[in-house]
Amino acid sequence: MFEKLEKDIGYHFRDASLLKLAMTHPSYAGETHIHNQRLEFLGDAVLQLCTSVRLYHQYPDLPEGKLSRLRARCVQEGALEVAARRLNLGKYLLMGYGEEHGGGREKPSILADAMEALLGAMYLDGGMEDARRLIEEVIPIADMPKVHDYKTEYQELAQRVVGEAPLYRIVSEEGPPHMRTFHAEVTLGGRVTGAGAGNSKKHAEQQAARDALKQQGL
To answer: What is the widest separation between alpha-carbon atoms in the chain?
Structure first.
């Protein structure tokens, strides 16, 4: 019953029971506890490792913190759901009557779990390479969010037009320690040219630079 799925993933299972297990939702297993959650656990680890290696090589200049945030975007439920839909995993899931008639085959969380379970099954059956290949085919690396560096842009403008660098200062801050708001000003030639606020000093300075550029019509 899974021949079409094997064709779509480009992999033939030596142990067909692993693929069946990967597609078995807990609602179908009843009291036997023979379902895909253990494979889901394993598949999550496989996905994390393969994605970490991809990001490590694709973004050689990114620090660990940004790599971690980017990996989180790649392996989140939404990305796994999209991959599961590409493979039409909902069609192959074995689930109980109540879950199925409650729209279980279309639930994002169930589809995401099934995708992870499938990766776990492939790893056990054929090793990391086949699982890695499928990950790269159906779970694309998330694009790096584009961050506009207003401070750099304003500094380049100031150096070019005035011949000096702008200066920033935090003029006030408010709110509790865990929800602080900082207010910054930027000056150029002794004159305040922009102001902004943010949840960190750096963000406030970026907003001040953005305001200064806006004042220049940029």
So the answer is: 76
CB 120 within 8 A of CB 40: yes
Q: Could you tell me which CATH class the domain 150-215 is placed in?
A: alpha beta
Q: What is the pLDDT of residues 93-133, one digit of tens each?
A: 999 988 888 898 999 999 999 999 999 999 999 999 999 99
Q: Does an H or E element contain 195, and which?
A: strand 191-198
- pLDDT at position 178 is 67
Which residue in 40, 44, 113, 125 is the catalytic one?
A: 44
Active site residue 130: no
Active site residue 136: no
Catalytic residue among 40, 81, 113, 116: 116
In CATH, the number for domain 3-138 is 1.10.1520.10
Which positions of the chain have pLDDT values less than 70? 31, 142-148, 178, 217-218
What are the residue ranges spanned by the domains of the chain?
Answer: 3-138, 150-215
